[in-house]
Amino acid sequence: MSSNLPDINLNSFEDVDKAIASFKRLVSKKGLNDETVKVQFFEKFGTFFLLCKYYESGFLSKIPMFRVRPANKIDNPKDIKQFGAPPIDEKCGLGRANLNGRNVFYGSSNALGALIETKEVYKGNQFYVGRWVFNEKKYGTAEIAVTSYIDTKKKTRGLWKDILLPSDEEQLAYFEKYYGKEKSLILLYLVKELGKLFMIKSERYYPLTGFLADQVIYSPNNPMLPNFLLYPSVINSSFLNLALHPNFIQDYYILEKIVKVEVIGELKNNSLKVLPTEFGLVEDEELHFLSREINLDERFFIIDKLNCACGQSIEFDNPEELPLTNSKNNSQKNLKEVVEVFLAKHITVPDYNDVLNNLFEKDGLPVGIKQQMSLYLEDWTVKMPDDIHKALAAECQIVQPFKYTKL
Asked: For 202-274, where are the alpha helices, taking DSSP H only?
């Protein structure tokens, strides 16, 4: 954490509340600009508290980062630059974590978290979801700073939270070194209250949060130190958002893969079903897209259990060696043959639905879909030593491999 902390004039929680309330009232000021926010901030708080932790760069190679672009905003999907960090000199407006004209790279700790930040998660909408990985070999072993505007007692998801966020105890111990126990409690309260500004949905507060973020990302006190800013999503506070300097992304992050998806379900319990339509892999700094389909010729199944309506489970070692009898015509087939007929008849349309985060669990591309299914084997019976069992149900795993084709 930073070691240069000057004196402050806030001596109680009430002082902090008054200063925060006065700072928030700035959003009602006509003609509010970046310089006014800056002057008012230092007038009310005395200094900027850049509370951060320093890490060896190796930790970044363990955790991916995600960024989403609406498909209707991508002119040329093969142009990798359209998915990366905006050029530092490109014009931009005010954002939750950037000032006017100061570009940052916005990402998320989670693919779904990145998607919901678009505020356009409706059925039929299409997006490109990118997975970014850190180039540790190129960056080397220099330290990386992480600043968070997160309430560590609130439930958040993902490895970013588990690895990076300092506990209240760590923060208090740090402040106590310089200000003593009583003052450290006030400072921790101040940092948390400033962090709450990032949880306000209204864009009116962007001048305030943009200023706070700019002090971190463009780090006027230490411009050479790369600093990650973590803050909670206002759409769903269980996800963490990230904002970084564009040059850091361009220099040290790699777009590992990208998936074009269409939303086909509703967002429920932090889960969303999507239809992946294209898969992009990066080779020699170029994006190559592939389509996919189920390879029905290579579809196979595994029969886990055969159950009878009486409650008994029929034991077998090999489904090809368990004979079944058709109660209507007295014909015989083995269990595997009967299941094959039912699959061909009833499972002609594969389930393409993917839960969004499953697409990014592993490197590379998904190899197929595995479905659990219970098949009712109508009119078929099995003779066992104790009885003839009917009303049979086969518990199966249906494995449907994907076939990828270059576009």
From this structure: 206-217, 246-252
